[in-house]
Fold:
Amino acid sequence: MRPRSGHSDHVREGGRSAAEVRAPPAHSRNTPPRAGFFYNGSVFAPRSNNKIRAWVLVASLLLAASCSTTGTRETTALALDSILVGSQRSAENSARDLYRHPKETLLFFGIRPEMRVLEIWPEPGWYTEIIAPLVRERGKYYAAVFAPDLQSKYVSGRLAAYRQKLAARPDLYSAVEVVAFPRDGGAVVAAGSLDMVVTFRNIHNWMAEGFAEQAFATAYQALKPGGVLGVVEHRGNPAAAQDPRARSGYVNEDYAIRLIEGQGFRLVGESQVNANPKDTKDYEQGVWTLPPTYRLGDQDRQKYADIGESDRFTLKFIKPGK
Structure:
């Protein structure tokens, strides 16, 4: 039985730090950025003056690190620190860091600035604001969005809003490549071309629409041998049988592991960084009862605010080498 609480990660494979992997038992104003992953103030301007001193220190450290052709955990962490306080992030989005731990999550997955990274269903762009700037200069960010559906106002509106977001900050997002994510297991980008695929809180959606297996088959095809799949999802109650349509929004962790490994992936680590033991997972309106959705409106709002966002599993898989 895997532990489901706490925030420690343990080593399974040699060379990984304890913070990265836990073994399964059964995150000058007019000068453009150079090669590397440091950023000038016009791109990631801190939102408050009291952060300027820290910003200058981070920028200088990243400048020194830019001579390296391969990012390290430490230099990537510094880059993420500067991105997370950047002006591209709204106060509302930054407030979610308390529950979503983007720096720790991405470092656990092993992201580096030189990687080619695809995010599945990134709309409305919460993680786009973080990953796209990180890999802009030396890697590549692919946004695998909903396939267009002219009959759906929801899909059309969401896609339009996402493209407007990208267009509003060409200094950050002009290199983003938007691609349609297929539902039939077909190719999303050239086979074997990606270093990493990530998806956040989407498995339940794919289960509800009946193409979860196909989604992971597409991810497997797109990754290089040794490439990483990073997954975060609302964690269900292991004592309850999994609803194959995940109508509550929760997915049992063991169910997800079997689903993903069934497409050829191998689990190499799991982290409790996004765990929340306060989440009882028994709400009439499912996971959407909790923030940020608050499906019940003002009814018991403070109660659910005190719980916070959902309990989530955070899993790292690889596509085995040949």
Summary: Strands lie at 116-120, 140-145, 177-180, 194-200, 223-234, 266-271, 312-318. The longest helix spans residues 153-168. The CA atoms of residues 276 and 311 lie 4 Å apart. Confidence is low (pLDDT under 50) at residues 1-8, 10-48, 50-62.
